[in-house]
# Entry
Amino acid sequence: MELTERVTQAADAAVREKGYATAIDVMLGIGWLQPSHVLEWRTRRLPFLESGIQANLSKVSEAMRLFAAWAANAGLQPSIAEYSARTANRERLRFSKSGEAAIEAAWQTHWVSPNLTDAKCARVAARAQKPPDLVVVAARHSDWRCHRCSGTGQLLVMEPPGPACLNCAGLGHLEELPAGDALVTRRARSASKLSAVIVRWSRTRKRYERIGVLVEPAALAKARGRTESNA
Ligand SMILES: [Zn+2]
# Structure
């Protein structure tokens, strides 16, 4: 299939699914980027997103150009989103090796469908500005050491120098809520000022899977209480 067609299909699928498309959606859709690379980038294990892309840079810029042309032609509205790291410091993320402003802006542009209702538009915009979830990883081996205190544990936070324990990452006071009860999870997360998503690497599926969340104990108690009193 021609690159134009692959880019168009990927962008179109993203717009149909969520009302807007980004260059990341396109790279994922055409298979040049894997979700695991996006997660590594968002947790700052990749210095810039393009280092995770399985295609040469001239191909990438061609795909970016085709995507922007398609989006403008389809009447989508450009809107720039902030991308910050899913780490405690939430550093601003970089997309390209050069860090050139025009390239960074192209990656940050969300092309929004003109057919969205105003309410949906506002939700899409709010989501783009909302800080991303922190990510905590279930340790695969018990022999890892925290780069700050040399401690260990079942959960770790990936930081650029290496893994950190929950205490050192400032998440030690949070309580674990395994996935399974969507209602309690949603209530606990919305009541918790600080929360994190727990993921585990699946060797068979070759991707990270969400296995639960970390939330403040008070928020968890409140969410469970509310759910029981409704039952
Ligand atoms: Zn530590």
In short: The chain has a mean pLDDT of 89. Residues 146, 148-149, 151, 164-165, 167-168 surround zinc ion (CB under 6 Å). The chain has two domains: 3-129, 134-230. The radius of gyration is 19 Å.
